[in-house]
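Students often ask why inverse folding is considered easier than folding. One informal answer: many sequences map to the same fold, so there is more than one right answer. In these notes we will look at a single instance of the problem. The structure comes first.
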């Protein structure tokens, strides 16, 4: 093929969305990761450059999610193309914003285009999940599904590949996001989760999830707000998040519909009705960290309905 560089962008995502542990996710518009692929000088996958990671990510194909995802695609096709790959990180590592998922998804979309699009976008999901298996120890899809397909996704995990249900949502639903200068490894965040959940807790959490999804479908922001309750992960993880209770209270006082941990943290997110509310809420959340002299980044975003794209 011609030596044209092919690049793909995959956005940040919020896993769990408080109420749906390991089965619910939504896509943001920014920040995100970019993967570029050009013809290599010799067969195989060669991760020639990583930018924006402060030298923390491995370049070995078998140790980087980008390499693992592309290799799984080549193995499925029985090909051994020469590929020179560049990863540009726009997402902070260990942030709870789906950093490994964004890299995995961008790699899958770029490689698919480089290889002549042998797979549909939906068929790229299992390959992107292999990146999550490497990064987190489990091939879960609550980040890769929304990063790939966009919108708000519900994952029914007990199938191969898992069923991905795209949920309608109010068009004026926005996110306020604050990422404090801290890191929480997904493996560590999963280690603090309870092994068993009491029956009453499981019943209540199921009801909250069902009500939240119904609120999205019916564009009922009051029901969305009342249903954003995490009885499983948040109580076990919030001690890992600096000033969690204070930031959450600030978001709710600013008018947010609800506030919780993005993925495994330390990023916190709040769902808001409209851009103006998201701006106000993000400022309020960031102010808490400013008062405590802890550096942070804030973002606002509508729900990204498109997901990963070729550039």
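Output (designed amino acids):
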């Amino acid at each position: 093929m011609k030596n044209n560089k092919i690049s793909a962008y995959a956005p940040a995502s919020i896993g769990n969305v408080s109420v749906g542990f390991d089965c619910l996710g939504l896509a943001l518009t920014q920040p995100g990761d970019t993967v570029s692929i050009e013809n290599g000088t010799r067969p195989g996958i060669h991760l020639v450059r990583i930018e924006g990671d402060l030298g923390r990510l491995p370049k070995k194909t078998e140790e980087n999610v980008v390499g693992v995802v592309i290799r799984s695609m080549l193995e499925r096709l029985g090909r051994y193309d020469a590929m020179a790959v560049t990863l540009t990180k726009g997402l902070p590592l260990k942030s709870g914003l789906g950093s490994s998922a964004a890299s995995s998804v961008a790699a899958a979309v770029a490689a698919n285009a480089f290889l002549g699009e042998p797979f549909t976008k939906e068929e790229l999901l299992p390959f992107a999940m292999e990146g999550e298996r490497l990064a987190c120890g489990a091939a879960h899809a609550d980040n890769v599904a929304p990063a790939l397909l966009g919108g708000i996704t519900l994952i029914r995990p007990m199938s191969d590949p898992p069923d991905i249900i795209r949920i309608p949502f109010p068009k004026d639903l926005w996110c306020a996001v604050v990422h404090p200068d801290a890191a929480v490894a997904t493996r560590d965040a999963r280690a603090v989760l309870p092994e068993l959940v009491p029956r009453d807790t499981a019943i209540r959490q199921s009801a909250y999830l069902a009500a939240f999804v119904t609120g999205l479908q019916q564009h009922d922001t009051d029901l969305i707000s009342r249903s954003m309750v995490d009885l499983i992960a948040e109580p076990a993880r919030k001690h890992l998040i600096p000033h969690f209770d204070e930031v959450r209270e600030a978001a709710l006082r600013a008018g947010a519909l609800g506030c919780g941990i993005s993925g495994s943290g330390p990023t916190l997110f709040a769902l808001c009705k409209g851009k103006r509310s998201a701006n106000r809420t993000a400022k309020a959340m960031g102010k808490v960290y400013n008062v405590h002299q802890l550096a942070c980044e804030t973002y606002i975003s509508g729900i990204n309905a498109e997901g990963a794209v070729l550039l």
